[in-house]
Amino acid sequence: MKAMLIHNYGDDAVFEAAEVDTPEVKSGHVLVKIAASSVNTVDTMIRKMGQELPFAPDAPAILGMDFAGTVEAVGEGVSGYSVGDKVYGCAGGLADLPGTLAEYIVADAKLIAHKPKNLSMRESAALPLVAITAYEGLKRAGIEAGQKVLVHGGSGGVGHIAVQLAKHFGADVYATGGGEKQLALIQQLGAKGINYKTESVEQYVAKHTNGGGFDLVFDSVGGANLTNSFEAAALNGQIATTVSMCELDLTTAHFKGLSLHVVFMLIPMLHNFRREEHAEILRNVSQIVDSGGLTPVLDETHYSLEQAGEAHARLESGQGMGKIVIDN
């Protein structure tokens, strides 16, 4: 099969087209012909940082985590899938799991689900990593109908899904963005937009919560922004974050009695730990999509497998709006 390989990691790392053996299906897995895959920030981090990250695969490597495609073979012990089924998932591109920048992938059946009926392959491929991340964060933070929820980075890959899921779960949703395009998308998704460049945390907390703070803050920006999340949260509030590799002063979190939930959605893939929970989330996401509660936003660009490097560059440029998808 055709695959795009990384032979050396680093800032100047390039993808090279190669012919490699098509993987053979094995017990507990399915062989999928990939129709589309999407690019996530973690993919670009692996390409540049390589072995500095404990979960980077050994080079030469096939990167890429998200995919949508058609089942071509079903391994022993797998139930619920047949040849010809349309599926999606996040199942490779790190550690010892070959990735999705190829024509085929052998995916653990516990990491996939039937794709949403109402979405194309391209749209379905955009969802797995970001949808699992957003869903897990909101659920772990105990989202409930009627809560005031703030999403930091509401127009981003994870953020724009978190906004829609929070709405689906019945919350009153607000989201930060830094420009007209971002705020327009946030409003379009059904949340109230907050321009973090022109409004301070104190100002928007006063304006939208009468100074009481948000019941739940989903922080897809993280890092130094977590202090803004602590400031924006209500007493005994819940914070879910996807980016927490940093040193922080937790004093505000202490005096407010906040709970912090760190979401690292790669854990099931890396450690073969509760992988079936990812399949369950993806099944739930498919239902939410098909009921009209969630639609991924795709960047306007189109890339072929051979243009994987350009797709990575597009994500890193910050010029994209929505998920960047590759047509495999």
Structure description:
The chain is α/β, with parallel strands linked by helices and 328 residues long. It has 2 domains: 180 residues, Quinone Oxidoreductase, Chain A, domain 1 (Alpha-Beta Complex), CATH 3.90.180; 133 residues, Rossmann fold. Helix content is 30%, strand content 25%. The chain contains 11 helices and 15 strands. Strands 3, 4, 5, 6, 7, 14 and 15 form a 7-stranded mixed sheet that branches. It has a 6-stranded parallel sheet with strand order 10-9-8-11-12-13, with helices on both faces. Helix 3 packs across helix 10. The chain is globular and about 60 Å long.
How would you concisely characterize the structure shown here?
By secondary structure, the chain is an alpha/beta fold.
Distance between the termini: 11 Å
> Kindly state the mean pLDDT as a whole number?
97
Strand content: 25-35%
CATH architectural name of the largest domain: Alpha-Beta Complex
The total beta strand count reads 15
Anisotropy-based shape: globular
For the sheet with most strands, the description reads: 7 strands, mixed
Highest-level CATH class of the largest domain: Alpha Beta
CATH topology of the largest domain: Quinone Oxidoreductase, Chain A, domain 1
- Poorly predicted runs of 5 or more residues: none
Order of helices and strands: EEEHEEEEHHEHEHEHEHEHEHHEHE
Give the fraction of residues assigned to helices: 25-40%
Q: Superfamily at the CATH H level of the largest domain?
A: Medium-chain alcohol dehydrogenases, catalytic domain
Rg, Å, rounded = 20 Å
Quaternary class: single chain
Subcellular location: Cytoplasm
Organism: Gimesia algae
GO molecular function: oxidoreductase activity; RNA binding; zinc ion binding
InterPro entries: ADH-like_N (IPR013154), ER (IPR020843), GroES-like_sf (IPR011032), NAD(P)-bd_dom_sf (IPR036291), Quin_OxRdtase/zeta-crystal_CS (IPR002364), Zinc-ADH_QOR/CCCR (IPR051603)
